[in-house]
Amino acid sequence: MRATGTVTSQVIMVDFPDAPAKITPQQAFENIKGTTAAFNEMSYGKFNYLMEPTYKWYRMSKNATEYDPLGPTFEKHRAYLEEALKLADPDVDFSKSESFIVLTDPNNVPFVAGPAFSATDLPINLDNTDFYNGTGSAADLATWGFIWANHELTHTLGLADLYAYESGDTKNNYDVLRFTGQFSYMADTSPDSFAPGLFAFERWNLGWLEDDQIICTTENEITQLITPLAEIGGIKAVIVPITSTKVVVVESRRPIGIDRNLKKSGALVYVVDSAVQSGLGPIQVYPVDTKNDPQFTQAPRAVGENIEIEGLNIKVINSTITGDTVTISKKK
After folding, report:
1. For residue 212, what are the contacts with CB-CB under 8 A and spacing of at least 6?
2. pLDDT for residue 171 is more than 80
3. 223-267: per-residue pLDDT in tens?
4. 248: number of CA atoms within 13 Å, CB side?
């Protein structure tokens, strides 16, 4: 899906013979009203995801249990979404839209998760318009809140999951967050997250940060002021290539906006490896202390703190409201 400009999305609401909605369509839409503002913040105003809700419950032809789970295969997922959208077609002009959201009553469906829909050669056609991107909600909407929609729709923009698909430590409730903790809503999609703002590398990939806001360097040593990621303008990251697929990234985090609950300000250091698949840790925040700090609350580096990683020494030498000044040097 386009990641810049205005993208109009139709929001359709459905229920089922065995699971009739127990809330109003307006209440259902309240769950995702924050989605547009979050995209606007993440993109610095470059992406306006405009949602147009139709306040009506459309009754699906089969019981909810027959659609459960929503996405075991592309074909089953597509069939469910297509039926839902076609029920609304007599009332809705889809011709000027590029995306869609199918909402259910999250407290009254058997679906655990509502995955993203992205088609390559089998779009859903309505009003002579092909829909390649959208999503449908499930019970997770009740706990994730509007960030559920941002997470799933950002998949349709091209970004990967940053949480772990499999838990390696059943005694640690945060083990699925062992790669990035609560940083980025592509990892932790809880409304209680302290830093759900997307990484600078993710925003750069989406075109929300310009190339001249990223310093890519192979120098033996560099000292650079990095401005807070949540603010518009300025240098937002220093990137050091390690291999053809791996880079080290340094950015600056502050408790601003969607990251207002950030526990510690400072320079955040992470490794991006494009050879690592979604759900297996394509981004890894450092330092890693999953035993004492499983949510990575102390990961940002403060003044005087440093980290050695991938043959680099990264030290914060100054920190003010204007950002973090770091020195990055290659170990001899």
Report:
1. none
2. no
3. 999 999 999 999 999 999 999 999 999 999 999 999 999 999 999
4. 20
- Residues 27-81 have pLDDT tens digits of 999 999 999 999 999 999 999 999 999 999 999 999 999 999 999 999 999 999 9
Instruction: Write phi, then psi, for 235 (nearest 5 degrees).
Output: -75, 125
Cβ-based neighbours of 31, under 8 Å, separated by 6 or more: 103, 106, 137, 141, 142, 145, 146
- Reported as half-sphere exposure (CB side, CA atoms, 13 A), residue 159 has a value of 27
Cα 12 from Cα 18, distance rounded (Å) = 19
52 token code pair: 């147009």
Q: What is the structure's pLDDT at 231?
A: 98
How many helices and strands, by DSSP H and E, does the chain display? 7, 16
Q: Which CATH architecture has domain 5-157?
A: 3-Layer(aba) Sandwich (3.40)
Domain with CATH 3.40.390 in the chain: 5-157
Count of beta carbons in the 10 Å neighbourhood of residue 6: 10
CA dihedral 170, 171, 177, 178 (to 10 degrees): -100
pLDDT surpasses 80 at 191: no
Give the phi and the psi of residue 291 in degrees, each rounded to 5.
-80, -50
